Amino acid sequence: MATDFRFGVGLTRAGSRAQLQDAARRAEDLGFDVLHVPDHLGGPAPFPALSAVATITSTLRVGTFVLNAAFYRPALLARDVTALRDVSDGRFELGLGTGYVKEEFDAAGLRYPSAGERVDHLSLTTRYMAEHLPDVPIMIAGNGDRVLRIAARHADIIGLTGGDRAATSDQDPLADRIAFVRDAAGDRFDQLELNLAITAMPVDDTGRPDLTIPRISLPGLSDDELLRDPGVLSGSPDEIAERIRGYRDDYGITYLIVQMRHADAFAKVIDLLR
After folding, report:
1. SS3 of 84, please?
2. 266: CB partners within 8 A, 6+ apart
3. Phi, psi torsion values for 33, nearest 5 degrees
4. 17, 60, 182, 206 — which has fewest CB within 10 A?
5. How many Cα atoms within 13 Å fall on the side-chain side of residue 108?
6. Which of 110, 102, 114 is nearest to 71 (CA)?
7. 212 forms bridges with which residues in the sheet?
8. Rounded alpha-carbon distances, angstroms, from residue 264 to 23, 185, 216, 218
9. Is the peptide bond before 53 cis (omega within 30 degrees of 0)?
10. What is the longest distance spanned by two Cα atoms in the chain?
């Protein structure tokens, strides 16, 4: 498995071309390896935005975190992936997920498939991409057994959510999910890169993160429980760096993604880890 850290930053707002390109140059200058764009109605369109980023950067990789696979037919998606792979000189990484926001399907005039149908389509899309574009790294992000089984068998990068409950002295949901992936991947496991998305971290000297996002994704947990979630970082840059080293040592996680609002604060952590 990968032993060197990689760091990504997610861009949820694009604005003008100049604003988008300034954000990309900033990410590259701060030491990030990958700039990601999500796939939600109301946000930037992933492929045009990432194409603009790729044309004005030289080392920064670009990726989707993650595309709603249910929005796309595999052959048509492969055409766009091929174009972005070529425009970026091979710096594109394709992140895929099942899609989960019913309101976005409604707004797009699409039927909202069942959970099983969405996972089936993710599997179809992943296998098509792996067959037709084997040089494009594929990330699959999710938490459920079926999604992680697809990722273990066909993806290059697995995006872990940290589980759906708080860790305790007796339970470690993240370790459970990684053990599941290990069993499903078999001999492939050592080739996989494990990723974790950071949903909250301090952006000032208080050491306290804003828990707004994790409260939405993990409803019902107390603040103390949220602070134990792997995707929530707190403390000084040195303390955060030490926790991330623990992610690598204890879980094999070497790829972390933060949001653009965390970029400047996280850059201090990157400096400590390289």
Report:
1. helix
2. 7, 9, 198, 201, 258
3. -95, -30
4. 206
5. 17
6. 110
7. none
8. 12, 36, 24, 26
9. no
10. 50
Cβ count within 10 A of residue 102: 9
DSSP H helices, 133-228, are 145-154, 173-185, 212-217, 223-227
Token representation of residue 178: 């990684």
Which stretches within 89-164 are classed as H helix? 102-107, 115-132, 145-154
CB within 8 A of 82, min separation 6: which ones?
133
What does pTM read for this prediction? 0.96
Kindly state the tokens that stand for 50.
């990432």
Which residue matches tokens 């303390």? 239
186 φψ region: left (φ > 0), alpha (ψ -120 to 50), beta (else): left
Mean local confidence (pLDDT), 147-170: 89
Would you state the structure tokens that stand for residue 28, as one six-digit string? 């590259």
Q: How confident is the model at residue 188 (pLDDT cuts 50, 70, 90)?
A: very high
Q: Which residues contact 53 (CB under 8 A, 6 or more apart)?
A: 20, 21, 24, 35, 60, 62
> Rounded to the nearest 5 degrees, what angle is found at the Cα of 76, between the Cα atoms of 49 and 88?
40
Per-residue CA distances from 190 to 54, 126, 172, 193, 222 (Å)? 30, 20, 21, 8, 35
Amino acid at 95: G
3-class SS of residue 187: helix
The token duo for 187 is: 């001999």
Tokens at 273, concatenated: 């880890």
Neighbours of 273 (CB within 10 A): 17
pLDDT digits (tens, 9 = 90+) for 75-111: 999 999 999 999 999 999 999 999 999 999 999 999 9
> Which residues sit opposite 64 in a β-bridge?
37
